């Protein structure tokens, strides 16, 4: 972890470093992913099962690719009762928060018979990808499924890789069942994304595919975008803490480490106006790191993407926060709420010294699927918005069309679209 | 234009035909587009000017790539006063409609010091692509720019190709000025998309790129997705008319033709429960086609993608409408409003016999940039939503965190994220 003076040069080199972590840097995998997608599209189940044998070592067939009710019931026996209890508590908060995101159809009408509006409908079927492997994140299942559920999506399917015996992690299954997933398929990787994008004999086609995954999954999602909708393409996690001399260095250090432990590409940055705090946080980071189980990952991510930046003043610090557009932002300053109003770009904003980032990961209710790597400048957290879409509504009476029909003809003729003009004219010819 | 009985087989072959028009079918251009993007990313202005010379025949430099105030003033002299008048009238409706789409930041709080919420901010800079060539569509400029303006985007830039003398169509320039574009650059094609995605010495980087274009533009937008946000990938236009025996065959025919004239890949479909109407519409289509200036295009698009489908009953017809998920849908039946409530998937829905599709293209206010080729199942019309993004807000007091802090630790430890657990624990250790 480097301590540096905050200058435009520092920021530029930091931003260049962070962008190196972007999935779009790995175009060398694109052709391999393209091949998997084309094969699944053409050969459907047969290709999916072949890739599953190759990559996951499992023998899947149309008969055993889907998780059964019995497997779900068995999963509950393997999950700690305490975990089930917190999953259920968290789900209440996640549901409550996302219900406030609901959008409603509206219309506007006038007495001469004009109605314009916007109709909101959920998508028909959502596909949620859940990674397998060593790390298992039931919280991620809740966060990806619940917005679809609240949006009113009729069918939510999930894919997650199985082990070579065809088993899926029980905590993943329990989280899926609790969140309300309708069908679960034991497949992973680019082949699972392709199966949900185009449909196979066993896997139904989804309208939108969401969920995190490795580089193959990320590139596959990008490749199928347009055939289906996808959430934003996730990169490695980040935290940015904006703190002044009022902050508790121990809390700040602990929060920086909570993101650094995710993986070696994770980034943890402190921007502070206080040199004293900077030194104290660095000491606390070193003290904690020794005690933590994931210290090897933490050391690597801090070495590569960990920064303590000393800003000349709060305004400069805020400008930098907006330039970085971090996934997670903690504001631990005097007048933190006022500072929040000046933040333009961040995935999630945590205000005050008790709003620790993991509170948002698990419990507070807002979604933990957030735009990474500067994409908070144009992407939003995963939300109910991702699972609805809108249709414009237009209804004009004859009385409403008559005073403007010549204007429309005029416009159409200027664009040399004579059939457009004709479709208006024909209504007033008689 | 074929008249067929509506069966599941008919629908399947129709959907297969329509999908042939999708830009994702043209992957052979991908490597060419990829090369243009990489060149612009690396060599910036130099590459942009080289491609402009090659494709548009124009000699551009950093000094003349941007449209000047003088050129804008000159453009006003070349535009018919009638066109300017309808542009201004249309803009009032477009602005009024889009203002109703505005979303607001919200928060929810409780007495023990919990606040969760969602902050809405506009993106900083939008990039609008406007095609050049023979067809000039000032209405498209208005529809792409106005939602960004209403969203509160600070800077809106536009790119559009120039002719070999460096001139841009005056109607395009006037529409851009009227809608409130801040800067206009005389470049087009994949090189313009790349320039807006990565920035060059002359062209600033945009956060979101919207606007229609040819296959190179569509593929370039898909390729830069993730670096920036994009609107949905547009395919050729479509109209679907759902009509019963109460419909006026002449109006229906004219409306079908208004989309068929767009290009040879455009599609026009009538689904009706009335064999009589089907025959009458076909006769009217033939009568009108002879009279229309774009009859060659119309004939080709109707031959390939024009259908009249006779449905056994209204329910089957509605199911088919939802399966096709057309860009434009006209409902010309008895109880048209009730039928509308049963439509799940369509870009824009036009209700009743005076709600002709071109009314929506130019004048009513809703956006004419709509999801095509079945993507209305998951994409929405271009809207203010496209130019805003959201940040989650989380603020907990110590009193709020204390009763649940052990739950969060529990969850984090189940996921083996010990630094996450530590960041909560450290706050209650003392």
From TrEMBL, chains A, B:
One GO MF term attached to the UniProt entry: histidinol dehydrogenase activity
Keywords: Amino-acid biosynthesis, Histidine biosynthesis, Metal-binding, NAD, Oxidoreductase, Zinc
NCBIfam families documented for this protein: hisD
Chain residues that bind NAD(+): 129, 191, 214
PANTHER family: HISTIDINE BIOSYNTHESIS TRIFUNCTIONAL PROTEIN, HISTIDINOL DEHYDROGENASE HDH
Active site: 327-328
Name of the top EC class for this enzyme: oxidoreductase
Pathway entry: Amino-acid biosynthesis; L-histidine biosynthesis; L-histidine from 5-phospho-alpha-D-ribose 1-diphosphate: step 9/9
UniProt record similarity statement: Belongs to the histidinol dehydrogenase family.
Binding-site residues for substrate, renumbered to this chain: 237, 259, 262, 328, 361, 415, 420
Pfam families named in the record: Histidinol_dh
Protein name (Swiss-Prot/TrEMBL): Histidinol dehydrogenase
Cell wall biogenesis/degradation found in the keyword field: no
Annotated function: Catalyzes the sequential NAD-dependent oxidations of L-histidinol to L-histidinaldehyde and then to L-histidine.
Listed transmembrane segments: none
EC number: 1.1.1.23
Binding sites annotated in the UniProt record for Zn(2+): 259, 262, 361, 420
Catalytic reaction(s) noted: L-histidinol + 2 NAD(+) + H2O = L-histidine + 2 NADH + 3 H(+)
Note on cofactor: Binds 1 zinc ion per subunit.
Cofactor(s) in the UniProt record: Zn(2+)
